[in-house]
Amino acid sequence: MRILKLSFEAVGSFGGKETIDFTKLGTGSGLFLIHGPTGSGKSTILDAIVFALYSDVALESNSSKSRLRSDYAGDDQISWVQLDFEARGQLYRIWRTPKYERPKQRGSGTTSQPAQASLWRLSREDADPGDAIASQPRTVNEELATRILPLTKSQFLQTVILPQGAFSRFLRASSDERQEILQQIFGTQIFERMQKEFTERARQAQTSAQAGSTTIVNKLEIFVDTWNKLAQSVGSSRSELETLHATLRALPAVLDEDLIKSWEPYYLLPAVHSRQWLSTHSQRVKTAGAQYQAALEKKEAAKTLQEDFQELTRLLAEEKQLQARQEGVETNRKQIALHERARLVAAEIRETQRYQENLATAQTQLLAALQTSPAPFDTRPLPTSETSLSELEERVTKQHEKNSKDLGVLAPLIERQKKLESLEATAKNARKRYVEHSQAAAQAAKEFTLLAPQMQTLRVRQLRLEKEQLGFEDARQKQLQLRQYEGERQHFLQDFKRFQNEVGKLPAFSKKVARARAAATQYERDFFVDSAILLASRLEAGRPCPVCGSSSHPDPAHGDANQERSLTELTRLKDQFTSAETTLREKHQQLRKERDRLRVGIRWLRQNWPGNAQVIDTRVAYLQEQAKALKAVHQQLAQLEKQAQQYRDLVRASVNSANLEKNKLANALGQIREITAEVAASGQSSNLLTRQRSLSEDQNKLASLIKNLRNTREALSNLSHAQEHLEKSLLQAHFPDALAAQAALLEADKFQELKTAVHAWDQSFQANQVKLKTDRIQKLTDPDFVLPDLEALTEKATAQAEIFQNKQAELAKVTEQLKTVASAISDLQTAAARYLESIKDSAPLIALANLARGEEGSAVRAPLATWVLLDRFEEVLNAANPHLGKISGGRYQLSRSDSESSRRRNQALSLAVTDNSSDKAREISALSGGELFYCSLSLALGLSEVVTAEAGGIEISSMFIDEGFGTLDTSKRELVMEALKNTSTSGRTVGLISHVDTLRGEIADQIQVIAAKDKGSTLKIIGN
């Protein structure tokens, strides 16, 4: 992984835009220096790199992403970071903005600016990025984490960027933490997944076997328990299961097949005894049931006789009470009959009273109407007979008809007089509007005449422009073909450049394959030579050779064998050669396919050339401008035509309105003359309205008087007829007068009470007599009748019922227990069959899991996931120790340890620092600050070298160190600088962040952070 270029703006201490091209730094020595005052923003550069890749700052525990937004940024200035980097052999560019608060554009307060991100894949560093492969923070993070970045943020901060507080984390890491880092770097996670899978499957198998055994034991205990309960219920011996019961007390945690099959004879016991037990208990139930039924029938017969005798006693007492109340009931019966006769005439009495009230009301209203009526009726006395009422009604009616005739004559004259004023106002308004409409028509005609020349000019221009637009579609189609052609041409050029780049890489691939072939061949030859030497060294005279079988060894090989050569390393080199050769062959095939595709593409470009691009674009642009001009002419012409039509419509409407007003004026003047002549010929005075109002008031009063006269006459007639009907009804009901009938009437509640009481007595007496005459009651009146002893019979039936229920319960219990025993046997057999089937493959799986966990069969007693990393870890330590030896003057050495001060189970990747001067190991926590720094640095350099050397692994080509130089003395610092410079030979570039002044004279390429008060920091690149 290599950091190429970093750009950022308004981030941390920097208010403006800054750019760092890391490819131009450290090109000679492999080192560059970042220096500046405390707080100026040196660590901000590391934060910007980490934020671009992981959307976070370098040390989250001590920092916050809120510090990314610069305090020196303007309100409209965007805080952003852009990073170009190389990972897995591919170039990428990422652009991010953090989430921060900014002032609102309108109003006061702040608003939240959301985070943004985009990611591109580049063909080369200076190439156009094209379309983004991800353009949202979530999708960018997923793409980086799953496909691009080889390290997590934590691992990145231990191998690439070593910020303050985290530099020595890999050195001080536990064995488990170190394993996680090395797994990610060397890609051995599959072994941990295999280890976990083996362990989980073995755990499941063991758990399943224990659970199955527990289930079987539980079901066996259920079987023994249910059998004992059944034997106790039937009174049988329980000796059949004594042996099995004893076995239960000493069962193992996991059962075996022989033990389970030894229980099978006990499963046949229920079938042997069940029929005899059920037959015996069924016969007992049948006998007890017959005895209980006989006792129950006797008890029920005695109970029935006892209830009948109690009923006879109650009926005789009830009869006596009813006879005592009979006299009062008869009195009530007479009152009810008298009330029912009076009720026949009550309605006619109420009707007569109502008519009397109606007559009084009508006479009162008639007297009031007479007093307010016009003369001469206002002085007339109140008429009381039907004859006087009819005579007065006739006179009033005649006067009302005369007044109606007079009103009929006045009405048309008054209406004509009212219309005369309206007609005069209409004539005046019509004359005025006639003049206005005539003037408007003349002005509109004048305006319309002025528009005609303008419209003619626009029509001529419209025809010319429309003729030119006939060729626009062809020109536009030509331009679209041109754009398609240019796009295809650009894609072809990009593909061709990429093809050339891939072809240029072929020699390097071929050399890599050749080196891999040579390395594998040489290692194989050396391995077999060493194997032959080792084999020859173990040959003994007279013993057969394990290879050829000969017992004589005339010419055995001699020499010093390298015992570090292994078959595993030989296999790895061969696999590496095979993989490289396969990759080269596939690359050749891909390039041949790409060459054929490019040939097809260039033929297409030659055949589909549309013509000169400038001429086509100029022609389309001209026609587009002319189209805009044509659209403007259409709009102007439409506007003028609309305005002309408005003028024509206005002339037509004004002329029509003027003629209409002229006709209204002539009509109004003619009606005025006609009405004036008619009023003059009638001879009426000018106060026609006063006369009309007076007559109308008299008419209303006369109409009210006529109505009251008729109502009074009707009420008098109704009262007379009602009195006649009442006299006839009293005679028929045998009442002397209405007062006697009213006295006989009862209140509704009282009447209902008497009637209910009489009816209830009749019903009760009748029911009493019917019951006394029944056969079962008459039988009890026999002098020889004797009641049986119900209490004794009940006690006997209860005792027989209890005996019967006990026998039934015993039978049900035995039946249910037999079912329970059968069910327990079935469950036990099913569980045993499933258990035996499940444990067939468990033993090999558990043994394999024990090996994977390092619990047995492993020389280093390490889990599989750790074991596969031991050689790599040794390589890292072997690569780190030369650096550490040079820096420490040969005093210190890193080595793998099998123990840590912690109590962790897996300690195979534990680390120790050996002091060669005392030949003792030192705790990491006991190292001084300077010792901790250069031990951590040596380990980081060794890790980077091993990773870079790994074929197909992660190449760490950039490193940033932000800690430790101030803890070193001059001699140690010189040794550290020499070790760092040596890393440049492998193509790695190391950036140092330090305050030490002497480093500025030792390192040529520098990034100087310049702090400016009130403006924020800026960068100055020194050297390349």
Mean pLDDT: 80
The largest β sheet comes out as:
6 strands, mixed
Portion in strands:
5-15%
Number of structurally distinct domains = 5
Helix percentage range: 55-70%
Please state the structural category.
Answer: alpha/beta
Name the overall outline: flat
Strand order of the largest sheet: 9-13-14-3-15-16
User: Uncertain regions: pLDDT < 50 for 5+ in a row?
Assistant: none
Count of helical regions: 26
Report how far the terminal alpha carbons are from each other: 22 Å
Rg over CA atoms, rounded to whole Å, is 63 Å
Number of strands: 16
Protein name: Nuclease SbcCD subunit C
Keywords: Coiled coil, Exonuclease, Hydrolase, Nuclease
GO molecular function, one term: exonuclease activity
Subunit structure: Heterodimer of SbcC and SbcD.
Layout of strands and helices, then pairs:
Elements: E1 2-11, E2 14-21, E3 31-35, H1 42-54, E4 80-87, E5 90-97, E6 100-103, E7 110-113, E8 116-122, H2 137-148, H3 153-159, E9 161-162, H4 169-172, H5 175-186, H6 189-234, H7 242-248, H8 257-261, H9 269-324, H10 326-372, H11 386-468, H12 472-504, H13 506-537, H14 567-607, H15 613-682, H16 688-732, H17 738-744, H18 748-772, H19 775-778, H20 790-838, H21 842-852, H22 864-867, H23 870-888, E10 892-897, E11 910-915, E12 920-922, H24 929-949, E13 958-961, H25 970-982, E14 989-993, H26 998-1002, E15 1006-1010, E16 1018-1022
Parallel strand pairs: 3-14, 3-15, 9-13, 13-14
Antiparallel strand pairs: 1-2, 1-4, 4-5, 5-8, 6-7, 10-11, 11-12, 15-16
Helix pairs in contact: 6-20, 6-21, 9-18, 9-20, 10-16, 10-17, 10-18, 11-15, 11-16, 12-14, 12-15, 13-14, 23-24, 23-25
Keywords: Coiled coil, Exonuclease, Hydrolase, Nuclease
Family: Belongs to the SMC family. SbcC subfamily.
Organism: Varibaculum cambriense
